[in-house]
Design a protein that fits this description.
The chain is mostly helical and 225 residues long. 70% of the residues lie in helices and 3% in strands. The protein has one domain. Strand 1 and strand 2 form a beta hairpin.
């Protein structure tokens, strides 16, 4: 019988770490594959909206030519990535108390819901035709806010979660960059660049935190009673 409890840092890290590593890798690898598959013009990481990658619409939209044959792959990747982060966040929240516990679990679930909306209501003519533009906007902004806020709360909870001090500090910095980037840069920097700063800050947090948890778990394998 294991001497570890179900909520111990090592037990949580055993699967929460790999989940947090997988989430950004799935998102980034899928993004690269889907972007490379664009067949009417090259996809621009600098100028194009991130959401265009998951849009089945083919044609011109507000000066952009959209043609993403593998849109379904990107949509699936967003949903899977969000689900993995939500599951890992809920598991990690069990090591916390008070507002940190509630906030960590809540932000993880909010991130999953946001990415589901982001995938289900891609930006294009249909959002204006059927009046669902607000659902796209909620998904887009909530994913950025929830993801980066989660990084900050994770950093503030670093000691309880068993994270090294450098990672706790890095998590707070990355989250702040992601949250402040959009109001500070949106409108005068290329759209794709502005979005990706806030997106990649959160994905980098997830990757680093997942690697740290996985390493901690590997360094302290399960002991048998």
């Amino acid at each position: 019988m294991s001497s570890l409890t179900a909520n111990s840092p090592r037990t949580v890290a055993r699967w929460a770490g790999p989940a947090l590593v997988a989430a950004p890798l799935i998102s980034l690898i899928s993004e690269a594959v889907v972007a490379a598959a664009w067949n009417r013009r090259p996809y621009s990481y600098l100028d194009d909206y991130v959401n265009f990658l998951g849009n089945p619409f083919v044609g011109e939209f507000r000066g952009f030519v959209i043609s993403s044959p593998l849109w379904w792959l990107m949509s699936i990747a967003w949903v899977v990535s969000g689900s993995l982060v939500a599951a890992a966040s809920v598991a990690q929240s069990r090591r916390l108390t008070g507002w940190k516990r509630r906030t960590t679990a809540g932000l993880g679930v909010a991130q999953a819901v946001a990415l589901l909306l982001f995938a289900a209501f891609p930006l294009g003519p249909a959002r204006f035709d059927d009046g669902t533009l607000v659902l796209y906007l909620v998904g887009a902004f909530l994913s950025i806010i929830a993801g980066n806020a989660l990084a900050i709360v994770s950093g503030l909870s670093g000691s309880a979660l068993g994270l090294p001090r450098w990672l706790a500090i890095a998590s707070i910095v990355l989250g702040c960059i992601g949250l402040l980037n959009i109001p500070l840069t949106y409108g005068w920097t290329p759209t794709g660049l502005a979005e990706r700063i806030s997106l990649y800050s959160y994905l980098l947090w997830a990757l680093l935190t997942g690697l740290a948890l996985t390493r901690a778990s590997a360094a302290h394998p399960r002991r048998q009673a």
